[in-house]
Specification:
This protein has a two-stranded antiparallel sheet with strand order 1-2. By secondary structure, it is of the alpha+beta class.
């Protein structure tokens, strides 16, 4: 298991989906991400990119989205 923190993910800046797709798909060390953005636009982007998203509650922080990239078939 990696000692790196779980990376934050959000909607790509200026619609540059290719940049974030290349960064996600080429990163073999991370398959979990987190976000505090629960917008339909992010959820749709993540689903289309091959993520399955769940959520959890972190005490003293609040709800977070936990997208997991499904590398074996994404």
């Amino acid at each position: 298991m990696s000692n790196n923190p779980i990376p934050y993910i959000n909607i790509p800046v200026h619609g540059n989906n290719q940049l974030i797709m290349n960064a996600i798909y080429s990163d073999l060390n991370n398959n979990y991400y987190w976000s505090d953005n629960f917008s339909p636009n992010l959820y749709i982007f993540l689903a289309q990119a091959g993520f399955i998203s769940t959520s959890t509650y972190i005490e003293n922080f609040g709800d977070i989205l936990l997208p997991e990239i499904q590398k074996s078939y994404a």
